[in-house]
Write a structure and sequence with these properties.
This protein has 3 helices and 11 strands, in the order αααβββββββββββ. By secondary structure, the chain is α+β, with helices and mostly antiparallel strands. The chain folds into 2 domains: about 60 residues, Arc Repressor Mutant, subunit A (Orthogonal Bundle), CATH 1.10.10.10; about 130 residues, Umud Fragment, subunit A, CATH 2.10.109.10. Helix 1 packs across helix 3 and helix 2 packs across helix 3.
Length: about 220
Amino acid sequence: MQGLTQRQQMVLDFIRESITDRGYPPTLREIGARMGIRSTNGVNDHLRALERKGYLKREDMKSRALRPTSTGELPGGDALANLPSLPANDDDFVEVQIVGRVAAGLPVLAEEHVIDTVKIDRGLLRGGREVFGLRVQGDSMIDAGILAGDYLFVKKQLTASRGDIVVALIGDEATVKYYYPEKDYVRFQPANKTMAPILVRAADFRPTMLLGLVVGVYRKV
């Protein structure tokens, strides 16, 4: 078994600590924050090294499926034995990437904006694999039961029906609103009586402004 560098040992220790304290591994972003690594690629470099050296096992290369091997075992020997097993590669599950924000000029799932991944039962989502997740900021949709901090699951598409809840790119930021195409403009209506709608002139509206249709909401409790 190959030895670890100091940084690799710190990553492994943090994974152990998270599993001991919380019962589950840290996200890529949490590892990056602890280690002072700004990109998920940098975090993955350390995880790949730990896996290559036999200290770590991963399912689908995602941080939520991190499991130290017996070599990288937690103090107490069988501490990992009682952890719930994670779903393996299974057609019943869809892996969804969660983005922290969406900015103009970049793909929706630009690497630097992906903050986490989750596996969701396919039966809970309409949209199959063409789904991404977005963390909600603000309270413009509170009357629709969508709160700040929620994760939205969004089916990627450039069309929507009147009254659908969509994610649209207006200016350089994404917004979550009801979609109402009118004769002279498109109205993006918040579900908050204290907020005004966003109006986009019909001549200025482009289908590419629509990033997708909201098909699910996840809230941590």
